[in-house]
Specification:
By secondary structure, the chain is mainly alpha-helical. Helices cover about 75% and strands about 0% of the residues. It has helices spanning about 5-15, 20-45, 45-65, 75-85.
Length: about 90
């Protein structure tokens, strides 16, 4: 999947920093499919893969870590998901 360009990601991150549900929904729609594939590659189990991705998005929202993210967003998401899959 081709991800948003740099400018789009900056706009998305600004929305996330402002706790926009719309921006969070866009983040999920943009990246969840690729993250599920990555989790499945690591874990080999669809249920565990869904749980790992769900946990990632829940943690991102609850901890509001969006000020720490710089584009490209997928690098941060993939790194965090790998950590979740090892826990």
């Amino acid at each position: 999947m081709e991800h948003a360009d740099f400018e789009d990601e900056l706009v998305l991150l600004e929305g996330l920093k402002n706790k926009s549900i719309k921006a969070f929904s866009a983040l999920y729609k943009e990246y969840s499919e690729d993250l599920l594939l990555l989790a499945y590659t690591i874990l080999g189990d669809p249920t565990l893969s869904h749980r790992a991705v769900d946990k990632l998005f829940i943690d991102l929202w609850e901890k509001q870590v969006f000020t720490n993210i710089t584009p490209p967003i997928h690098h941060f998401l993939y790194s965090e998901l790998r950590k979740n899959c090892k826990e």
